[in-house]
Structures are given as C-alpha cells and as structure tokens.
Specification:
3 strands, 53% helix, 15% strand, alpha+beta
Length: 91
Amino acid sequence: MGFAETFKALSDPVRREILEMLKGGRMSAGDIAKHFDISGATVSYHLSQLKKAGLVFETKHKNYIYYDINTSVFEELMMWLVQFGGDKHEI
C-alpha cells in the first residue's frame, strides 16, 4: 500500500461513502450500487480504485462479488498521522 494511492482513493466523496457503508459489514457490489444514482460501471470503477489502494477486499461467491473494508490500511495510516499530533503543551 502506498500513501499516494490511499489518499487519492480517499479524496473522492463517493469512495468515502462506500467505505462508510462497509463499516457495517460485507456488501455485494449490487447492494452498494443501489445506494447511488450513478451507473453500475461508475460504481465498479470506484470499487476498483478502493481495491487498488488496498482499502477493500474483494471476495467472489457464485455470481456475486462482495466487498469488505480493510482496517489494517486505516490502522497504518493512523499510525503515520499520529506522529504529527505534537505535544499538547506546545504553543
């Protein structure tokens, strides 16, 4: 996982909304698409960008593709960001 791909994927509001939906658990691509007023191809593109950034896992079962959030990428990102928190006593 590279931070450039992660931040690029997170920069899109549709992708952030997909990630928020996946916080509740695994969802099929079709169920994700039902929440948006965009084409299935566009939803597929957003899912592929999230997958490319390592933010989601893809699992195939019969004729369906399911997506799960990859929390380890978020943990790594948070560990990197926390170094910029500074000391509370600094001015």
